[in-house]
Design a protein that fits this description.
With 292 residues, the chain is an alpha+beta fold. It is 29% helix and 20% strand. Helix 2 crosses helix 5.
């Protein structure tokens, strides 16, 4: 290969890497899976303690330069091949370069986990390690998307995750409680928050966000505590979690604005608040655009 061609390719690679650390999405939008994979690798090396959100913050750039200095590289903040190599197993395997399956680790696994979470199927901790939870999330996504649910992220699965936006409901929902939104749908630390949190006083009324039928009202051992689930139309459900009490039963028909229960702190909750989720055929979607 001519020297000029090699130089041009190297320069283009550096520019792409620089763009990875500069471009940021709009508020509430999905970040870059490549930047998220980078953050996972930096976190594994103890250099980054922020959220795995795929947005190139100052903390991300500082961590990259620290990694570069540790390995005797030019501390320019550009994530090129040598910087990726310094990440070890967390910098190997670009997304799409291989079929990803159980037991694998690497940059591509972290990017896959990030994409699955934004498409409504989080796999727990974003750590670049393909364990049982990642396999389950992948199979759920594949089934939801109409792909072969074999638990292997091949070219068709990765292409669908890359090209298609996260699911969004075309439905109008009533705000279920008189309280502001604090924690939004999206990354939280090294995990993913699948709904909206409304901090409110204990006992505050929780209202149905729309007309529908109660499909669950009871205790959820997975962390939601007292939980009410309402089906509004085929494939569209809302979840109301951490309730102190419930005023409806399974099978009841509820109208928009009807009281379902009261705000509490049951299940995995550190204080009284309502956790609201929106599910589309099982995929978690951001409820905020639907609220009116």
């Amino acid at each position: 290969m001519p020297a000029a061609t090699r130089h041009t390719r190297a320069r283009c690679g550096a520019l792409v890497a620089l763009a990875l650390l500069v471009l940021a999405p709009a508020a509430g939008a999905m970040g870059s899976p490549g930047t998220a994979a980078l953050q996972v690798g930096l976190r594994a090396h103890g250099l980054y303690g922020g959220t795995i959100h795929g947005v190139a913050t100052a903390g991300t750039r500082t961590a990259v330069r620290t990694l570069q200095r540790r390995h005797g590289l030019r501390a320019d903040g550009i994530v090129g091949p040598r910087t990726r190599a310094a990440l070890g197993r967390y910098g190997r395997y670009p997304l799409g370069g291989r079929a990803i399956r159980s037991g694998m680790r690497g940059w591509d696994v972290a990017a896959l986990q990030f994409l699955l979470a934004w498409h409504g199927f989080p796999s727990g901790t974003l750590d670049g390690d393909f364990g049982p939870r990642t396999g389950r999330a992948l199979r759920l996504y594949q089934g939801w998307r109409g792909l072969g649910a074999d638990g292997v992220a091949g070219s068709a699965t990765i292409r669908a995750l890359r090209r298609e936006p996260p699911p969004r409901a075309r439905i109008a929902l009533l705000k279920p409680v008189r309280a502001p939104v604090t924690d939004r749908f999206g990354p939280r630390g090294s995990r993913f928050h699948t709904g909206l949190d409304f901090p409110a006083r204990a006992g505050a009324p929780v209202l149905s966000a729309g007309t529908g039928i109660v499909t669950f009202a009871g205790w959820d051992a997975g962390g939601y505590g007292n939980l009410v689930v309402v089906r509004h139309r085929p494939g569209v459900r809302t979840f109301y979690a951490h309730l102190s009490s419930m005023r409806v039963r399974k099978g009841a028909r509820v109208s928009s604005g009807q009281r379902l229960g009261a705000v509490g702190a049951t299940g995995f909750a550190t204080g009284p608040h309502l956790h609201l989720e929106l599910r589309l055929r099982g995929a978690a979607a951001d409820p905020l655009p639907a609220l009116r």
